[in-house]
Amino acid sequence: MIIDCHGHYTTAPQQLADWRDRQVAAIGDPTNAPDPTELVISDDELRESIETNQLRVMDERGSDLTVFSPRASFMAHHVGDVDVSSTWARICNDLCHRVATLFPRRFAMGAMLPQSPGVDPTTVLPELRRAVEELGAVVVNLNPDPSGGHWDSPPLTDRSWYPVYETLVELEVPAMVHVSTSCNPAFHTTGAHYLNADTTAFMQLVQGDLFADFPTLRLVIPHGGGAAPYHWGRFRGLADMLGKPDPEELLRNVFFDTCVYHQPGIDLLTDVIPSESVLFASEMIGAVRGIDPRTGHHFDDTKRYVDATPNLTDAEREAVYESNVRRVYPRLDALLASQGR
Amino acid sequence: MIIDCHGHYTTAPQQLADWRDRQVAAIGDPTNAPDPTELVISDDELRESIETNQLRVMDERGSDLTVFSPRASFMAHHVGDVDVSSTWARICNDLCHRVATLFPRRFAMGAMLPQSPGVDPTTVLPELRRAVEELGAVVVNLNPDPSGGHWDSPPLTDRSWYPVYETLVELEVPAMVHVSTSCNPAFHTTGAHYLNADTTAFMQLVQGDLFADFPTLRLVIPHGGGAAPYHWGRFRGLADMLGKPDPEELLRNVFFDTCVYHQPGIDLLTDVIPSESVLFASEMIGAVRGIDPRTGHHFDDTKRYVDATPNLTDAEREAVYESNVRRVYPRLDALLASQGR
User: Fold this and answer.
1) From CA B182, how far away is CA B92, in angstroms rounded?
2) Which residues of chain B fall short of a pLDDT of 50?
3) What would you report as the CA-atom Rg of chain A, rounded to the nearest whole angstrom?
4) Strand locations in B87-246 (E)
């Protein structure tokens, strides 16, 4: 079984963006804010948006199930205040829940959180609980920089984040550390901000001691861990200089996905990072949608690279495709078990 | 001949840090600012600080010449105003000039620029000219984020940077794109901020069209290009989506150094990036100073990785060690030629 642990609902019907535009236009003018009930998308529209996009591509490439969360670049936690984010997160999570309900064997839900810059992270807890306990989310996306590229939040190891981790541990869901759109002109969203966030988060974890306090917390760093595997020697050397354990010890709690869009990158990832800590993912339909003229295949068809890498045994490859993610996402494992899978 | 294009004077005598402490303490209180003439370091002290450190390591590892610029993390352009930065840059550049003068066959000078957050980049031009024309700098370090981790400068493709590029082109010196200390607690300086800056700068260049305006400008992106080579497929795919040329076309003007501190990283770099665009460097004595217990050698002994990689022919390896940097740094080539090398 092939599980893609990182997909976003990037293809939602136009009504969603239209509703969001109205919500954003009404910031500071709440009497004109649209009501969530004014967003009407039929099941048929949802089905079509999935069947012609993600599901088609999954079938073409041979993946069985995608963990499916709201579009990362649309989370835009820096837009509006915590109330704006809360309403928006509910709407986006509800849509992912509906997709997972319509295609119960093909999609499992991931959730976004209603973060807002400078706001106490405890404000996300009600939606986190709702998404997991009522909607069935098996993972949540945690944004280490809700400001959208100004990086004015404390590191992920800061105690202000602890209530989120306590709830994640209690609910047995991992978090994927995933930023949203950059509103900083220095950072291209998917070409710089995403990768920088991955690198930054990993180094924060190297510097800190988070998993001493949360030994069962699991964090997924997407996009192949940003720059970390390529610079694994640097991270090992810095950890040594900081008097911290070898970063490999973090990999009991930290996992990298395979959203690396060429063969040499996947070869490096699977050479450097123990296979138990690598989770298959493509992020399709996402940041990079084109076909590589050198290969004739989509850049984000990461299954081809994972299949082709000489650095995994068959058993390790199976683990990257299935058993690792079932171990790291216990609620996904329970869901699949309930389906007899 | 083996040329290390990326070394910093990280081992200057204590008087330098003491003088800087006094300068920083007097910010806002200029009557107490120390005079540059109060910094006294003898030639013998300079010699010793080099012979026991960089020169010893160069001899141990077998490199012939290091391009040697002021300590990157000490540039700290965010500290004080443009006058503070200007005085500090002059002092640091003068010291590197003295080192290159004391060891003319082992060190060539690189310069820092007196950047300051929010200040027009034209203010760096006098020191840039002085460093090149009077002190003999063969490269300058250009900080894309003088704020130290707040990233409030426009992208490197913005026209406000153009006077710097015009002067670099006129003087025939490349710039190494290199940030300084992070004062943002989200970013570890050498484990996140440096790598993020490399990735960010490269993506800015992918988005822009800088080399159409400056076809002979050359920019070196250190630390193996940040995350760019590991995510080369992502950058190629994003360039395609943005309607930009394949990023490989940038590599006529953009060069990556070999400051990647493990064998798989150097293998990826030399697999993905054409060897003409790779410049040997170690950044020693720099960010990572320890010995890798797995190999018994220093993490930053990058010559071992370059020697061992199967991805370079002997001719390509020679180019990475010498001829590429002589081509990219014409003033270094002229200096070496004047020495009969």
Assistant:
1) 19
2) none
3) 19
4) 107-112, 139-142, 175-177, 219-221
A109 CA to centre of own chain? 11
How far is it, in rounded angstroms, from Cα B131 to Cα B113? 9
Cα(A297)–Cα(A293) distance, integer angstroms: 7
Residues 6+ apart with CB under 8 A from B297: B291, B304
Give the residue among A277, A174, A264, A184 at the shortest CA–CA distance from A225. A277
Greatest alpha-carbon span in chain B: 60
Pure H helices in A62-181: 72-75, 82-102, 125-129, 162-171
Are A265 and B230 a contacting pair, CB within 8 Å?
A: yes
Long-range contacts of B45-52 (CB under 8 A, 24+ apart): B45/B13, B45/B15, B46/B13, B46/B95, B46/B98, B46/B99, B46/B102, B47/B102, B49/B11, B49/B12, B49/B13, B50/B11, B50/B99, B50/B102, B50/B103, B50/B107
φ, ψ of residue A111 to 5 degrees: the values are: -120, 150
pLDDT digits (tens, 9 = 90+) for B40-81: 999 999 999 999 999 999 999 999 999 999 999 999 999 999
How far is B196 from A202, CA to CA, in rounded Å? 12
Residues of A in contact with B237 (CB under 8 A): 261, 287-290, 292, 299-300
Give the gap in angstroms from C-alpha B14 to the nearest C-alpha of chain A: 21
CB neighbours of B88 closer than 8 A, spacing ≥ 6?
B20, B23, B75, B76, B80, B114
SS3 content of chain B, % helix, strand, coil (to 5): 50, 10, 40
Q: Which residues of A are catalytic?
A: 283
Q: Say how far apart CA A320 and CA A310 lie, in whole Å.
A: 14
CA atoms of B163 and A249, how far apart (whole Å):
48
Question: Are A140 and A132 a contacting pair, CB within 8 Å?
Answer: yes
- Concatenated DSSP letters of B176-219: EE------STTS-IIIIIHHHHHHHHHHHHHHS-HHHH-TT--E
Q: Do A234 and B299 touch (CB under 8 A)?
A: yes
Distance, in Å, from the CA atom of A156 to the CA atom of A165, rounded to the nearest integer, reads 10
In angstroms, how far is CA A96 from the centroid of its own chain? 13
Query: Which residues on B lie below 8 Å from A152 (Cβ)?
Result: 186
pTM for the model? 0.98
Q: Are B238 and A223 in contact (CB under 8 A)?
A: no
- For residue A192, what are its two tokens? 């710089």
Give me the residue label for tokens 């996905």: A257
Tens digit of each residue's pLDDT (9 = 90 or more) over A247-265: 999 999 999 999 999 999 9
Per-residue pLDDT of chain A (341 residues; tens, 9 = 90+): 999 999 999 999 999 999 999 999 999 998 899 999 999 999 999 999 999 999 999 999 999 999 999 999 999 999 999 999 999 999 999 999 999 999 999 999 999 999 999 999 999 999 999 999 999 999 999 999 999 999 999 999 999 999 999 999 999 999 999 999 999 999 999 999 999 999 999 999 999 999 999 999 999 999 999 999 999 999 999 999 999 999 999 999 999 999 999 999 999 999 999 999 999 999 999 989 999 999 999 999 999 999 999 999 999 999 999 999 999 999 999 999 999 99
Tell me the CA distances in angstroms from B184 to A57, B54, B120, B303, one per residue in order: 41, 30, 22, 33
Q: Do B188 and A207 touch (CB under 8 A)?
A: yes
Tokens of residue B236, six digits: 């190629």
CB-CB: which of B144, B200, B267 is closest to A196?
A: B200
Which of B230, B257, B269, B283 has the highest number of chain A CBs within 10 A, making it the mutation to test binding with A? B230
- Rounded CA gap, A256 and A248, in Å? 12
ipTM above 0.95, yes or no: yes
